[in-house]
């Protein structure tokens, strides 16, 4: 070998998978947690290993030799307690993750036996643990006794890569629905239903407080009940009372003839209680008229 002697290390692993095809290996982590960037490579002689975050060098490693321990150089002081190499290997463990740790990481393996360094890339996404999602109730409509509305599920913060789904529960069936918006069509005569929104991201999940259909459509239910009550107690118009009125009777000699109940017919006149215009009876002439009493033969 030409040039100055190099530190030799023999690794019997093979570089395979995403690094061989140039596709970054995807990793996920949680805020406050840790993640391991696995290093799998096959090089007979390794001079140095360099870990890079975006375009900034994170760690430089000079492997140990027979007479020396491995030398690890952390370029940024704030990362001294966050960087670790488990089991005396060269896979990088990054702890106390923060949101801004998301990005592209790259490891470079330099060797005097290689014209160009071997590289492997990683794409890290750091997520928040999800809090309880909130549910917003849309405008409500009453369509022939059916409550029609929408429920919208969302997160106050940490919405990156969040997926939503719904569970609709009643006494007989359990249904599921994908998406943040749940359309609802519920008749108040039916059994009560419960709606629950579930939010998930790659590291956690959480669910909303249950929403009850009866509470959701309470105003519409009250309107329906009031309408039904009104229909049941709708008053009928009053029936006018009949007021009998008897005609006066004139006789020839001014005396009332003896009445025979069995052979006498009475004439009764029915008059409505309300008279819009005054009514005048025709004047009687002085000529005597026949009595309306008729004897029945």
TrEMBL record:
Gene Ontology biological process terms, A to Z: adaptive immune response; innate immune response
Keyword Ribosomal protein found: no
Keywords tagged on the record: Adaptive immunity, Disulfide bond, Glycoprotein, Immunity, Immunoglobulin domain, Innate immunity, Membrane, Signal, Transmembrane, Transmembrane helix
Topology versus the membrane: Single-pass type I membrane protein
Domain Ig-like stretches: 133-213
Annotated Gene Ontology cellular component terms: membrane
Signal peptide from the UniProt entry: 1-21
Organism this protein belongs to: Bos taurus
UniProt-recorded name of the protein: SLAM family member 7
InterPro entries listed in its UniProt record: CD2/SLAM_rcpt, Ig-like_dom, Ig-like_dom_sf, Ig-like_fold, Ig_sub
Gene: SLAMF7
Compartment list: Membrane
